[in-house]
Amino acid sequence: MALKKRKPRTPGTRGMTSIMYRGVVTTNKPLKSLTKGKAARAGRNSFGRITTRHQGAGNKKKFRDIDFLFNKKDVPGRVEHIEYDPYRSGFIARVVYRDGERRYILAPQKLGVDDTVVTSVDAPLKPGNRRPLKNIPVGTFVFNVEIKENGGAKIARSAGNYAELSALDGGYALLKMPSGEIRKVVDGAWASIGEVSNPEYRLVNRGKAGRSRHLGIRPTVRGTAMNPVDHPHGGGEGRQGRGTKRAKTAWGKPSGKGQKTRAPKKYSNVFIVSRRKVGKRRKGN
Q1: Is CATH 1.10.730.10 the right assignment for the domain spanning 220-279?
Q2: Environment class of residue 189 by beta-carbon count within 10 Å: exposed (0-12), middle (13-18) or buried (19+)?
Q3: What are the residue ranges spanned by the domains of the chain?
Q4: Basic residues compositional bias: what residue ranges (predicted)?
């Protein structure tokens, strides 16, 4: 699959790129029994207050019910279609199992129509098949990884992502996460073989603000363009530095740019073997 470059016929299409779905997505009609409406929250909680900024509007879309629990074990399934999902960056696969049931799963790379997938302790080591981590060879790329056994897939689910199984030791599997962090997960947790589809998603250039609005993404205002009452970086005449040693959010908390933002006493700190690298990467590192 490749990116499609648009001709600069208008200012909005200059530099604009998009995913070439033709040849990958095999149908544009989702299965009605596995779709439902979902109210747009626009980043607001039950009190109507904004808790996630820069969300709102966008095209109406239907939610696809994706199987992350994979509780249908030892039953082979055949891939009927590869489909687009408006709620996620990777593609999804519609699978019909031998008993006639149909489910949606995240589609890995190199999975096509009529391929077979199965969840089993001795499933073949093919993309889309699912095994416990202790039954997967060290060095294998996995996605849709559980944190605890039969708890549902939580790790490595977005387009092009995967975790690398680095080691098996003392009832735990060591996973190198997409962020570079090395983390311990119980070796009885299940994971799918392969990498999530649509890796070119991160290379897309939307080209114009309107395309982001169609996706439900509202504008982002720089903190340095605000007043001091609205943001720690605000105020001053003309353009100038932020005036503080560390970058901050609008509420004064440390933000990215090489700063550690993880809670010091988070419950899962004991499972982290090596922290992810933060900040600008220096030459030679």
Answers
A1: no
A2: buried
A3: 21-31+59-201, 220-279
A4: 274-285
